Amino acid sequence: MDYPNDQHPAAPVRSGIPEHGRIPKYYAVKARISVLVDELGEGGLLPTERDLSERYEVARETVRQAIRELVLEGRLRRQGRGTVVAGPKLEQPLSLASYTEGVRRQGRTPGRNLVTLDRFPCPDALAAETGLTRGEAVWHLERVLLADDERVGLESTYVAVARVPRLDADFEPDSSFYAYLHGQGIAFGDADERIETVLATPREALLIGTPPALPMLLIHRVSRDTGGRPLERVRTLFRGDRFSFTTHLRG
Description:
- By secondary structure, this protein is of the alpha+beta class.
- It is built from eight helices and ten strands.
- The chain has helices at residues 25-40, 49-56, 60-72, 99-104, 124-130, 167-170, 177-183, 202-208; strands spanning 76-79, 82-85, 90-93, 110-121, 137-147, 150-160, 188-199, 215-225, 230-239, 243-246.
């Protein structure tokens, strides 16, 4: 198929032209760095901002803005004092499958670091959202999500102590919580899920190891067992530069 010059899929600069017809300088530089990224391949070290500004004959701030967008898009990532080419984003299915299963399907090694495991009386807001009883004891399990030892998210899980009374004694914090529930004879029935884009709080950004300005994908999930009883409430932050979500739709 023939394409006009400004519509060809291999014309990244032309596709960025606004209606007034002027190409933003940083965008033209971004397109040239994108070609360099493809040439370097995953893990390749990007030249310094100074080298790139000299190569493309532009100000360092222009290069910095182009790199900043490529980092936000997940094509580049910061490593120490340098910038390297990032690997492909992790695809997480929107289903009742666990995080562990989703990461393993892509040949990556899942892991989790425990932040906290404590218990407290169920507050009004949590009771209203989940159907739990106000004041009943609930566990709060918070963990940093890992993929090949890279921090990629933060997960907070709330579950009634009555459902898993020995969670603090029997559960391995770096393992799958879903697998643990199945081992306790608890099966998932259905869930309600909501996704939104947010910025992490300073505490969350520190735990995940990202700048506070990095966009995050936030998933809220309320799950029930096969009998329709409340099971868990999960709030998970995923790095927007490292994750995408997939689902299968049927008409």
